[in-house]
TrEMBL record:
SUBUNIT field: Homotetramer.
MF GO annotations: ATP binding; metal ion binding; nucleoside diphosphate kinase activity
NCBIfam families: PRK00668.1
Protein name as catalogued: Nucleoside diphosphate kinase
Required co-factors: Mg(2+)
One Pfam family recorded for the sequence: NDK
Length: 140
């Protein structure tokens, strides 16, 4: 089915000046940006977005990293977009990511792993709505 999922190009992606290369990978593999903007998250916004991880030992580090500079938030649409996005990103830990994936190619570590993608259709809806109202999604 055609789905819409959330992608975040994390602060390390902006610092490395590779947002164009990352967006090109999604486009080449059949996902289309239908919403896109740059935002510098506050601690509160990052904490709210990652609330499911609030009890994890790395939560503080995660919020600190996600707020150290701007991110690009992007809604991606296409056939099976949630799984497709995850395949294109590769495993959370770049050491485990398959060759050719974004994380294998660009990520620094499990924490600074360049991209976020929604992990399920349910969460994709919640995460897209977190950043985009219906009126700022653009379909072709
Ligand atoms: P993401 O897909 O954005 O969702 C939660 C993030 O937590 C994950 O990517 C990682 O960047 C981060 N994360 C997961 N495990 C660890 C860890 N052990 N140490 C630091 N960050 C982690």
């Amino acid at each position: 089915a055609i789905e819409t999922t959330l992608s975040i190009l994390k602060p390390d992606a902006i610092e490395k000046n590779i947002i164009g290369k990352i967006i090109a990978k999604f486009e080449e593999k059949g996902l289309t940006p239908v919403g896109l903007r740059m935002v510098h998250l506050s601690e509160r916004e990052a904490g709210e977005f990652y609330a499911v991880h609030a009890e994890r030992p790395f939560f503080g580090e995660l919020v600190e990293f996600m707020t150290r500079g701007p991110v690009v938030v992007m809604a991606l649409r296409g056939e099976d977009a949630v799984n497709r996005n995850r395949e294109i990103m590769g495993a959370t830990n770049p050491a485990d990511a398959d060759a050719g994936t974004i994380r294998a190619e660009f990520a620094t570590s499990i924490g600074e792993n360049t991209v976020h993608g929604s992990d399920s259709v349910e969460n994709a809806e919640i995460e897209v709505n977190f950043f985009f109202s219906g009126t700022n999604l653009f379909s072709r």
